């Protein structure tokens, strides 16, 4: 119980302060859970990030669920998800009934918080690069992953890069005497994989059938949002246009209503997948918001619980250890690409922005202050330099 309360309070604080999108969230998680609290080692964290990058759905939310499970079991995973997600769910439900986020933009707070995200992600990458790409071979894999993700505009490129890095890692390190995988301190039975993956596939097949058999609004919502959460690679920025094609042509809301929520979803902390809460609220009030939110995140739970027991077993195989060595280096490159776009390109528009990011980076790296200090300074700097 004590662990569960701790998990909730920490994840809630992160849910209130983690601006900047999925890659920024991974930076905040690294700072909080690896650097400050040592709930996971660098290697364990990188393994979990690599697995969640490979799965469809909201990668940062899945990483948060996994960390919660490490600390407090399956219940801890749900509590971690709830704390991290709840603030943006409630904010976007409020937007749907008339609460306007424009005031934050006019005050410059969002501009300041975007620059905080640059410093936080750069700090996380510095530590991960030292640990996971320390030699020329792994550094090369990281740079190749970085350039591939930047130059190939496809939502599938991350999966291709991870698979290729795994093959390179196996080829380069299969005869090396690698240290055993640290694994995650979790005991999950393999039969859990069968149940969870069966549910995942069963719902994916059943919901369209039910939708064809009835015109019930909530069946329609469950099908659209579950499919979006189950089949989207690349995170929240990819799921938003997919949902537009599901919602607007069906006459469930106007284009202007959708775009207003789209903007608000990118101005609040937490996962972008909570845009579903706004859409559901506009369509059918609180019941619609509950259905849409549950449906879009459910695949993330089912897939993670389905794949983790298998992952915990196979990562101890020597050939898999070699492959994971390459994958972890690729994760550094993938996150570096995301640091550039969209985090850096959307936040650093002039010399003043770069100077502010440099100061925040110094506070995190050399003064070793926690990320929440940078968040507070980002808000103050936004009010001072970007307001009006």
List the helices and strands and how they pair.
Blueprint: H1 2-17, H2 22-36, H3 42-54, H4 59-96, H5 102-107, H6 109-132, H7 136-151, H8 157-173, H9 190-213, H10 217-231, H11 236-247, H12 255-265, H13 275-314, H14 318-347, H15 351-365, H16 371-386
Helix pairs in contact: 1-4, 2-4, 2-6, 3-4, 3-14, 4-13, 6-14, 6-15, 6-16, 7-8, 7-14, 8-14, 9-10, 9-13, 10-11, 10-13, 12-13, 15-16
What do you see in this structure?
- The protein has 388 residues and is mostly helical.
- It has a domain of 115 residues.
- It contains 16 helices and no strands.
- Helix 12 crosses helix 13.
- The longest helix has 40 residues.
- It is globular, with a radius of gyration of 20 Å.
- The mean pLDDT is 85.
């Amino acid at each position: 119980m004590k662990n569960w309360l701790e998990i909730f309070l920490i994840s809630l604080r992160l849910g209130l302060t983690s601006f900047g999108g999925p890659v920024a969230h991974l930076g905040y998680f690294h700072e909080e859970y690896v650097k400050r609290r040592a709930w996971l080692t660098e290697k364990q964290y990188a393994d979990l990030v690599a697995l969640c990058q490979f799965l469809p759905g909201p990668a940062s939310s899945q990483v948060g669920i996994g960390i919660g499970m490490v600390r407090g079991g399956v219940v801890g995973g749900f509590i971690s998800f709830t704390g991290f997600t709840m603030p943006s769910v409630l904010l976007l439900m409020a937007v749907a009934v008339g609460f306007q986020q424009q005031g934050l933009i006019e005050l410059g707070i969002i501009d300041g918080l975007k620059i905080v995200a640059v410093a936080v992600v750069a700090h996380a990458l510095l530590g991960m690069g030292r640990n996971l790409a320390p030699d020329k071979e792994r550094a090369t894999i990281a740079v190749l992953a970085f350039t591939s993700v930047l130059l190939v505009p496809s939502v599938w490129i991350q999966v291709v890069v991870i698979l290729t890095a795994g093959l390179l890692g196996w080829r380069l390190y299969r005869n090396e005497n690698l240290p055993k995988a640290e694994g995650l301190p979790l005991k999950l039975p393999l039969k859990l994989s069968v149940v969870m993956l069966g549910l995942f596939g069963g719902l994916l097949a059943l919901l369209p059938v039910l939708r064809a058999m009835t015109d019930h609004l909530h069946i329609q919502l469950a099908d659209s949002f579950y499919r979006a959460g189950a089949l989207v690679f690349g995170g929240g920025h990819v799921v938003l246009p997919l949902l537009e094609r599901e919602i607007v042509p069906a006459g469930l809301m106007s284009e202007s209503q959708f775009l207003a929520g789209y903007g608000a979803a990118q101005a609040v902390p937490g996962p972008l997948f909570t845009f579903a809460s706004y859409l559901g609220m506009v369509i059918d009030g609180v019941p619609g918001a509950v259905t849409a939110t549950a449906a879009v995140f459910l695949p993330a739970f089912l897939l993670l619980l389905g794949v983790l027991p298998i992952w915990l077993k196979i990562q101890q195989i020597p050939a898999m250890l070699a492959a994971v060595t390459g994958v972890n280096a690729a994760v550094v490159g993938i996150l570096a690409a995301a640091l550039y776009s969209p985090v850096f390109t959307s936040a650093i528009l002039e010399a003043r922005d770069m100077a502010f990011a440099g100061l925040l980076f110094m506070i995190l790296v050399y003064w070793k202050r926690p990320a929440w200090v940078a968040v507070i300074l980002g808000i103050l700097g936004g009010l001072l330099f970007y307001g009006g």
